[in-house]
Design a protein that fits this description.
The protein has 431 residues and is mostly beta strands. The protein contains five helices and 26 strands.
Length: 431
Amino acid sequence: MKKVAVLFLAFLLALSMAMPCIAEGAAYIRTLPQYTYISSRLLTDETCPEIRIFPEYAYTLFADYGDAEPVFLCIPIMDGAKASSIRSYEVACLDPDKAIQVQYMVRESDSFEEFVNEAEADEYIMRDGSDGTAAFIKPERGQAFGMIATRELGKSAKLIISMGLDYLDSKMPLETRVQALTEAILAEVDRVSAAMHYETMAPYWSAGMFAGMKLLDDSFASLVEMDFQPITVTTKDGEALSDIPFIPTEVDDTKVEGIYAGSKGNYVEAEFSFDTNPFPAYQLEQQEEGASREKLQNGDECLLYVSEYDGEIGHWYASFPLKGLQDNDKQVYMTVHMTGNRVTWKDTAECLAIAEGFAQACKVVPVEEDPYVPQERPADAQTEAAQDAPAAQDVPAAQDAPAAEGEWTCPDCGQVNDGNFCPNCGAARPE
């Protein structure tokens, strides 16, 4: 059931699955004030209108930086594409109509030489980095890669662009694949180079940007809606931090991660996800110290696991049932996981009180009752894109030419072949 594999360091977007295109004349999902859909098919222009990335993981944004504030690389999203997953250092986008997926990631120590050495042949290297940009393609895989120097993020920092043109396949002529990939990656490298800019603490990472979330897994006909609840915690120095708002830092499918930043160095990392096998259940089976079954105010059972060290709670898990949501007759649980940095919780009761707030803020909504979920799914995007792809060159019929031993003439396009499939149109060899 759980499709969280992230997705971020290993970027896989399944266009082979039924793609959520919108029926002709229907508006795409665009407005849901202060909410973000946590799903590759439901992120919107409003929740992620621009790529904003930083070379390190999000928690460093709230660590002790002294007087320095982190600088973000900002890039307008490619026309026709939507953000399908976000992290502080990486954003993946998808254009379902053209069957194109693109990933953007910033790293601090990659070199142009090492980058272009990944090309399988010199003729597939389009730029070598001498002008601050590099690009190469992998025609057999339908992939292209670009690199751009981003010195404002660090002397050797680079932006890496990974592009997949999913309408290309190995049955197309090599020249067609090479041309399409070359044009696509060079156009994107040039677009990004011209449009990218830098911002200190970009507004994307501000509290209040998102008020809640909607989690959706294709296994269900329902989505999970939850408002983000502010929390109150105590620092290890005894300072009370009240009503701290939540800042999402990672968005993907059935999971959202983020930070409750009380002050520099004093923060809570939080993760929300749902599954049939919550972590506290495993701890209970192992009879681990700190694992317990508690009761919520509505009588539901809450599975709790509290990790305590030297009399202080450093992190804890709470899992509560999502009523009306099952997977193969198994109960689905929402799990809240919180980890403190210079922050602690007094006891189990304080952790349970926070879990109680999220349990009350959670509800299961049938997909057909949500006005922002597209209900119609037209033909697969990959098929539509393939129809718009550059046509293969016509191959003259060769029925009159004598065929060599083992060769056969394709009845569909006239290509003479010696394999089991026609390389021009993909037809199978006649029996």
